[in-house]
Design a protein that fits this description.
It contains ten helices and nine strands. With 297 residues, the protein is α/β, with parallel strands linked by helices. Helix 4 runs parallel beside helix 5, helix 8 packs antiparallel against helix 9 and helix 9 packs parallel to helix 10. Helix 4 links the parallel strand 4 and strand 5. The protein has a single domain, classed as Alpha-Beta Barrel (TIM Barrel). The protein is 45% helix and 14% strand.
């Protein structure tokens, strides 16, 4: 782990989840508009998670980019496409000005070409997309190892092949113990990964839900988190205070240990996301008053 602090402009990217219903749509639009004040490098809406369909990925990518003029990345879960569908989808995105992609195997995907849009691997799909257009492509990585990986070594080799195919960066699965990220970052660099490694962090909007999510993706929850939320009980304000404290402590530590780019899985919680951004950017610039938006709760 490096103790050197990076001096320079911090970079933040934001990820929202698909809204369900008119009220949730309005909330997402309001929140995304408010968070634009922090000048995120790009934004994205998750599609294809948990085996869900990706029908809204195109529409929401175009809609969000038109809303706040922040570059938007479209999620591509390969398990939901045929090769022909993937190429057509990518062409349509490029024509609409969407030039960033987050390319994933997808939660429902296996190891056969039928599960990977007809390609032999995620890396092969990345190569095809790069040949089609000069997309900026982010890929996933797992500081605590992918739950289905044969071994940590195999997981790392898979990441290297995606780099070699043209991936521009990797965004990690969320984690709660920064030491897991530092070990992963050091190992990836030692194995020859030369692209940007962006840590993904998540505010805890609901501790019960995050426990379920974490079991599925293999993210370990530190024991003291359980203690803190147990002490908060059913008090919503106390729960939010714990969530705010934890995410702020995490991102400050990341900034103090060489991280200058951060990806936030917002869970559409504008308040906690704004708290995280302020804490992260505050390590680079203590005067953040110009970035404080009037947020809708």
């Amino acid at each position: 782990m490096s103790s050197a602090k990076i001096i320079g402009q911090p970079v933040v990217s934001l990820e929202y989840f698909p809204p369900k219903g008119l009220s949730a749509e309005r909330s997402l639009m309001t929140g995304a508009h408010a968070l634009r004040r922090f000048a995120p490098a790009y934004q994205t809406v998750t599609f294809g998670a948990g085996g869900s369909e990706t029908d809204g990925s195109f529409n929401w990518s175009v809609r969000l980019q038109g809303l706040n003029e922040i570059p938007t990345a479209a999620h591509i879960a390969l398990c939901h496409f045929s090769r022909e569908e993937l190429i057509k989808f990518a062409e349509d995105l490029w024509e609409q000005g969407i030039q960033r992609l987050v390319v994933l195997r997808g939660d429902a995907g296996g190891d056969t070409s039928d599960d990977l849009a007809g390609f032999a691997s995620v890396a092969e799909a990345i190569s095809a997309l790069k040949q089609l257009y000069p997309f900026d492509i982010s890929v996933a990585s797992y500081p605590e190892v992918h739950p289905l990986a044969a071994s940590p070594e195999a997981d790392m080799r898979n990441l290297i092949t995606k780099q070699d195919a043209g991936a521009d960066r990797t965004i990690t699965q969320y984690f709660f113990d920064n030491e897991d990220f530092y070990r992963f970052r050091d190992a990836a660099e030692k194995q020859g990964f030369r692209r940007e490694i962006v840590p993904g962090v998540i505010p805890i909007a609901s501790f019960e839900r995050i426990k379920i999510f974490s079991q599925k993706c293999g993210a370990r929850i530190p024991e003291h988190f359980h203690t803190l939320f147990a002490e908060a009980g059913d008090d919503k304000a106390a729960q939010s205070a714990v969530s705010r404290r934890l995410i702020e402590e995490q991102v400050r530590d990341l900034a103090q240990n060489g991280v200058s780019s951060l990806h936030i899985y917002t869970l559409n919680r504008v308040d906690l996301t704004a708290d995280a951004i302020r804490a992260f950017q505050g390590e680079f610039d203590q005067d953040l008053e110009a970035f404080r938006p009037a947020l809708v709760g």
